[in-house]
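In full, the data.
>
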Amino acid sequence: MPEKSISSTAPSNNALQIPVESTAWHEFELLDSGDGQKLERWGRKVLVRPEPKALWRKASPELWGKADAVCNENEVWKTSPGNFELKWEGIKFGLHASQESKHLGLFPEQEPHWRYLKNNLKADDRVLNLFAYTGAATLVPASLGCKVTHVDASRPSVDWARENAKRNGMESAPIRWIVEDAMTYLRREEKRGSRYEAILLDPPSFGRGPKGELWKIEQIAELIDACAKVLSERPRLMILTMYNLEASALSLANLLQTDRLRARVDIGELALRTCGGRYLPLSLYGRARWH
């Protein structure tokens, strides 16, 4: 079973260390990876999905024939895994696959973020979750009694997140569901005088808002500036996650270490680890924190 671990992956002349955080979630397991694919256990289901970051050879080829469903490199499922549910710390997530995407509605490598939120937020904190997808990072703070604003440009994703809230009996939780372009929403919130103790960002490389607004990752510095303007006078944290192949964890540090934020910044990678100990790096993160 994967374990949360820290290991230095960045040798440097100045003793710089970039940690790797890996999930300790028993309902999910990376069984193997390689040749542009990953073999995963989601509860009782064993699935194969494409993974361009798995550049090496498979370590255990004999395991791959046991998969219940396979998604090929064109993101087409040869067989569907169907609808299923996983739990984390008592929170339920409803998952399924479509023929248009390899994604299932959850990114298990972000489990360390959920744990970080659980350990660093308090009831009544105001949390803004941008590019919020199906709501894992919305439900965790909501379960703590936080007041959460969930923003995503995709109505189907927001509907999926609302279903996840309903699945957990959180229909009456203080969650605002917003279908909106992230930058547009931030500008409106600044004018309203809205403020947040925590902001979460997981921007794609490219996307469009519900009114055709264009988002490109090159706008990320502008987005961070806009986030800084809606932080409360006593902020707790900001988490930035990026999946860009061209990015560096050091880039995230530079984005968050600004005079406007004046926060302590931690950077690293989110990865999945096989039982054999090999890591599959999947995303970069930066965490700005004030307390």
Remarks:
- Residues 155-167 form the longest helix (13 residues).
